[in-house]
Specification:
The protein is of the alpha+beta class. Helix content is 37%, strand content 30%. The protein has two domains: 4-111, Archaeosine Trna-guanine Transglycosylase, Chain: A, domain 4 (Roll); 119-211, Up-down Bundle (Methane Monooxygenase Hydroxylase, Chain G, domain 1), CATH 1.20.58.1480. The chain has helices at 29-40, 119-141, 157-167, 172-179, 184-214; strands spanning 4-12, 21-26, 44-53, 60-76, 82-99, 104-111. The chain has a five-stranded mixed beta barrel with strand order 1-3-4-5-6. Mean pLDDT is 87; it is low at 223-228.
Amino acid sequence: MEPLVTLPLFPLHAVLFPGMPLPLHVFEERYRQMMRMVLEQDRQFGVVLIREGKEVGGPAVPYQWGTLARITALQNLPDGSMNLWTVGEQRFRIVEIIQNEPFMVAKVLLLPDVYDGCEQRTLPVVHRATDRLEQYVRLLFSPEGGKHFVVELPHNPRILANTIGAILQVPLIQKQKLLEIDDVVQRLEAGLMLLEEEIDRLLLKAAEKSVATAVHPFRPEEKVVSRN
């Protein structure tokens, strides 16, 4: 078993996936204090989705799985707050919360991804997921799914699975469930299922909008004025 790591935690209404960016605006004093400590050490902290509670003000109860984040850039603002640019590095599971004030600190177990490298199992899923993700991104930014919209997508199964998790516009609990899947291909397959559901939803929404704009029903109260 991997040794436990002591990590300050930042509970958020967000799910961070490894390799994905997460910009943050830090203004609460407790988290400014936490970030000052992080910057003096290894620039790493944990991002966890809030199960109960709020981001600001009171205590928050996090989900057990989260992602290690590393600060890549910092902007100190005149009011004492700061803008941070971070990137996700590795998933972890909280083993024990050892501090709650002024900010949360926990003992965590870093979780390696499970990937057997079997191309026969992986390639069909990668090809289908890449195709569906391209279609999904086009639908998000161009409702007609226009072919003029160029999408550059990764083909590495791990990066592709995490990219899908980051891009999907679904409830956070569904993203959290993806994050908790250790096996890369299973995470990719689960993300693909969500993608296909979202594509069907967006296509239906676009079709309904098209019908609504094409049909202008006659209203009895409207008067037709003859100019003859």
